[in-house]
Amino acid sequence: MHEPKSVNPSMQKIMANASLKGGLSWGVSGSAREITRRRKFPTVEDLRATARRRVPGFSFEYVDGGAGLDRGVVRNAAALDAVEIVARYGREQTDPPLDVTLFGQKYSAPLGIAPMGLPGLIWPGAEIHLARAAQRARIPYTAATVGGVAIERLGAIAPDVLWFQLYRLPDDDHAAAFDLVRRAKDAGARVLVLTLDVPARMKRPRELRNGLLVPFKLSARMIYEAATSPAWSAALMRHGQPTFANLAQYAGNKATAGEIAGFTQREVRGAFTWDEVARFRDAWDGPVVVKGILHPGDAEQAVSLGIDGIQVSNHGGRHLEGAPPSIDVLPAVAAAIGDKATVLFDGGVRSGLDVVRALALGASAALAGRAFLYALGALGEDGPAYVIDLLTEEIRTSLRQLGIPSPDAVRLLRVRHPGAMRFP
Ligand SMILES: Cc1cc2nc3c(=O)[nH]c(=O)nc-3n(C[C@H](O)[C@H](O)[C@H](O)COP(=O)(O)O)c2cc1C
């Protein structure tokens, strides 16, 4: 079908009314603005393409890139694409309820926001918009240790859905990390997420080429890129330059943004040992998740320490470029721990169907990272809510298409998973 090249104003009105009444395009309804957005951004890939044009190049590269030559990022997506699920037909069609209970709390969908450091680079004030959208939609939002907005502020915005991700700060017998954990608890975080998969700092060439280094130096190119991204620059004026807000108070009284960045670079290091995991488990009165698990043996070890959740993840391809796609180890990890802990998944989620694929292979919920950041880059503060709607609608239609009554029933279907890894 061809769109008319130019439409006169009265024709435009008739078309807008038609859209509002019945919806001219497939499955799209709502206000004229929503319909326009749905037509412009039917997929996360459309959001990504617009984000690339709308934000400075150095911000986009920070978010989009992975370790090395990005092969891990590419493999995550390819491995998810390769997972096929066979539908069953002939049953009564119902709209499957999407809500899911994780660690004793009900959420509206098996979808969450993964922790991300400095998301304010792609859209200044990002955490505030992510937290707000998650709270409204009742999906988990994981605030990051190296976030740009302090945990106390996020707790006030998202009191019902806030999780907190902790990196290792080993100095002074983990004093700063234990203090952060206390602050997260006081701020109302419900789940503590310990990230294990960062034993070394990996090279991300796209960040190096763009000069995203500590100490940070603004280059002429960065200034040019910011100046030619007016909406992004206006958001920067409103929210200020992103800093490591959670860590600021440990960097010394009146530390400058540069000094806080230097402190973060120096002090946040290494991966938790199992002994350290046990110590943080004891310090947290509530559920604890370990993130970055790829081996069933590590999942079993965590469970034996009383960990409540395993987040199967390869950090979205940002650390070990040669790690397997997280979807390819998910079934083995899920089989190893059975119902002794809750299995979560992240890595490459770009659609509701990807979430359903993860559910089919043993996860109770999937978390997305970049999908939310692309939405912020494309739509600014409206982005997170937009992508939550987009993904939940796709989860619902995928489940309907598969002919099953609820998200967990997807595990009963026949799945072809060519990349599935076996562990002897
Ligand atoms: C810009 C960016 C920053 C991230 N920062 C963190 C972080 O501070 N802590 C952490 O545990 N994971 C971090 N991650 C990894 C995500 O939590 C998640 O594992 C990953 O993004 C999932 O892959 P996806 O982006 O393909 O959805 C980051 C990811 C991105 C894209």
CATH superfamily: Aldolase class I
Tally the helices: 18
Low-confidence stretches: 1-7, 11-25
Roughly how much helix do the residues carry, as a percent range? 40-55%
Instruction: List bound small molecules.
Output: flavin mononucleotide
Order of strands in the sheet with most strands: 4-11-10-9-8-7-6-5
Q: What is the alpha-carbon Rg in Å?
A: 22 Å
> Could you name the CATH topology?
TIM Barrel
CATH architecture: Alpha-Beta Barrel
Quick check: average pLDDT? 92
- N-to-C span: 54 Å
Categorize the overall geometry.
globular
Q: Characterize the largest beta sheet: strand count, sense, and whether it forms a barrel.
A: 8 strands, parallel
Query: How much of the polypeptide forms β-strand, as a percent range?
Result: 5-15%
Number of domains: 1
Tally the beta strands.
12
Order of helices and strands: HHHHHEEEEHEHEHEHHHHHEHEHEHEHHE
User: What top-tier CATH class fits best?
Assistant: Alpha Beta
Descriptive key words:
424 residues; alpha/beta; eight-stranded parallel beta sheet; two-stranded antiparallel ribbon; 18 helices; 45% helix; globular; disordered N terminus; binds flavin mononucleotide
